[in-house]
Amino acid sequence: MQATLLHLMLQCALWSLMSIGGNMVAIGDIHRYSVNDMNWLSDAQFVAFFALSQALPGPNGMLLVFIGQQAAGLAGALVALMAKLVPCAVLTYVGAGWLERHTDTPWVQRVKRSLLPISIGLILAATYILMNSLESSVTSLVLTLASAAVVYYTRLNAIWLIILGVVLGLCSAWLGVNWF
């Protein structure tokens, strides 16, 4: 149990520090470590925890709390929460003042400009990993891509697509067919 908590603390602290631009940039590594390397959860559990953490109010780091709880119970959830919040908070506290004093230097400007393409690349990689973890049928893949297109090309709020997905899933289960 202590070894699991130590692994959890170290990994969550690393994910906290590498999450420049938000947790989505680290989602690929979080998936690899928690599903493939440590076998703390399955692909389906990971996607469910990710969806739940996005739907709930509060910080996006809730995914790590769910993983910690799955790996080591309440102690794991608390360790994951603290390891996620403390390093990032300390870095922000220390770095914000320094960055404000040096924001006009050329190399700080270059670093800021380079973070955007890095974050976009990591988010695209996370999207690919999540889709591979979730999509097991052509129907499911088509619905995912159609939902993404609707969100991108229209002003329709994504919550309506989520509600539609819940209704389709419930109908599928009620009819006893495996559509998705």
From TrEMBL:
Membrane topology category: Multi-pass membrane protein
GO MF annotation terms: chromate transmembrane transporter activity
Subcellular location: Cell membrane
InterPro entries attached to this UniProt entry: CHR_Transporter, Chromate_transpt
Keywords linked to the UniProt accession: Cell membrane, Membrane, Transmembrane, Transmembrane helix
Pfam families given in the database record: Chromate_transp
GO cellular component: plasma membrane
Major location (coarse): membrane
Listed transmembrane segments: 6-26, 46-67, 73-94, 115-131, 137-153, 158-177
Family designation: Belongs to the chromate ion transporter (CHR) (TC 2.A.51) family.
Name this protein carries in UniProt: Chromate transporter
Species this protein is from: Pseudomonas nabeulensis
